[in-house]
Amino acid sequence: MVKLPFVAVIALGAALNATGKDPKKAEHKAQAASQPASFVALPEQETTGPFCVADVNASINPGTGAYIIDSINIAKEMSCGVLVITLDTPGGMLSTTRDIVKAILSAPLPVVVYVFPPGSVAGSAGVFITLSGHVAAMAPGTNIGAAHPVSSGGKDIESEGGKEMARKVENDTIAFVESIAIERNRNKDWAVKAVKESASITAKDALEQKVIDYIATDLGDLQKVLDGRRVTMKDKTLILRTQTKEVKRIGMSISQRLTNTFADPQVAYILMSFGMLGIIMELYHPGTIFPGVVGAICLLLAFVSFQVLPISWGGVALIILGFALLIAELFVTSHGILGVGGGVAVTLGGLLLINTQDPDYYVDPNFALGWGQVLPLGLVIGGMAVFLASVVLKGKLKPPAAGQEALIGVQAVVKEPIAAGGEGMVMLAGELWRALSPQTTEPIAAGANVVVERVDGLKVFVRRV
After folding, report:
1. Least crowded by CB within 10 Å, which of 202, 340, 380, 430?
2. Are 451 and 411 in contact (CB under 8 A)?
């Protein structure tokens, strides 16, 4: 009977070993299973390269997109410890934004998105880019938000493409920003609100709501706050060492600067307008050469802009028609009707130049061409038409300056007396002319002044003054 408790203890231990239900071991296994993948221990390594900076102070377009993506690759080649993208943008193309976010999420080195300098904004597309950074920071006096998608005309998508299109684009954009926020462990609810309700917040609020990681007054301050920060990459954890590192800036290439400049509807419209006006001036004054050369260059640059913008070719056709009507005004007497029609066509073409039905929606309402940009040129063209019409009209009303018609109404001096109803000789424009005065009942003596009424060959018909 004394041996039974001992046997029971041995049996209990054997059972626990057989089933693996050690309470402490089970608890440890449960904790390990509940840890997310990001908590898996990765080898740690300190960064040693320079503190590289790429400055973006423009809309998000193919030019700035190529610059950011190239900067990531260049920073890798330069062995930069970290790449800081200083950001100040009102927004831009959603397709380019996706390319940038994809490049940042898969970057081979830590990418810090820093809304800077004070007074800057990470609007619309800037929200997605800021959230996608391994580290997000803002300067005091900056703001972030208002990422609701709109059409390239700056209008709500529902008014342009209907409710179904609006719902489709909005849901897709929400899913996009939500996936970024989850990937970077940022405030998903605010990110969705920024897209759905165009929410916008200050740097202080962004820090409190865990939209960003730091507030830094300048690049030097950013270096201090980043120093020692751990950033999880795919296969390792990097400890940022930035405080004493050399700052190296990565600039835009010439092609990226040109693309950035041309990826603006206003620039495209101005280039096309100047090109057409230059060619018209060449037609007005053949042989001047300069306006024609400048016009041809502007037209070619305008078509370069069209390659990176969602252009409506119907709008382009209207602009071309407008200038064609203005050229026709040179050869057809329409009393300004063709020219005014040309001005109207150019104005309407400018308003329709950007394709608002393009599936590649902008998230920046400032991309639209409004009346303020297109109306002045339309008024200039209409004014030119009216001016040309008035010049033509004055020319018709003005007496001829050459030929026989120019002699009508001119005074002449009688050199040989003109008999009543007969002939004589007069000095007219430095020449002697045979003169007739059929209606004169009395002779006109030599030295008298007469006025030319009609010219018939080498004879002039005159009357006494």
Report:
1. 430
2. yes
Quick one: the chain helix, strand, coil %, rounded to 5? 50, 20, 30
CA distance 188 to 215: 20
The 8-class DSSP code of residue 432 comes to E
State the first-to-last Cα distance of the chain, in angstroms, to the nearest integer.
165
Q: Which of 309, 314, 304 is nearest to 352 (CA)?
A: 314
Question: Which pLDDT belongs to residue 393?
Answer: 62
Q: What is the DSSP string of 258-286?
A: HHHHHS-HHHHHHHHHHHHHHHHHHHHST
- Sign of dihedral through CA atoms 36, 38, 39, 43? positive
Strands of 116-167 (E only): list them: 121-123, 135-138, 143-145
Give 60-112 pLDDT, tens digit per residue: 988 999 999 999 999 999 999 999 999 999 888 888 999 999 999 999 999 99
Q: What is the assigned CATH class of domain 405-464?
A: mainly beta
**Smallest Cα–Cα separation from 59: which of 364, 448, 390?**
364
Q: Order of strands across the sheet with 237-239?
A: 44-46, 237-239, 230-232
200-202 sheet: strands from edge to edge: 121-123, 143-145, 200-202
Geometric angle at alpha carbon 333, from 329 and 335, rounded to 5°: 85
Neighbours of 440 (CB within 10 A): 18
pLDDT digits (tens, 9 = 90+) for 301-340: 988 888 777 778 888 888 889 888 878 877 777 777 887 8
pLDDT at 286: 80
Residues with Cβ within 8 Å of 365's Cβ and at least 6 positions away in sequence, in order, are: 91, 150, 154, 155
CA 257 to chain centre: 13
pTM for this entry: 0.66
Architecture of the domain whose range is 44-255 = Alpha-Beta Complex (3.90)
Contact between 67 and 211 under an 8 Å Cβ cutoff? The reply is no
Name the one residue in this structure whose structure tokens are 């003054």. 465
DSSP string, 226-255: HTT-EEE-SS-EEE---TTPPEEEEPPPHH
Phi, psi (rounded to 5 degrees) for 81: -75, -30
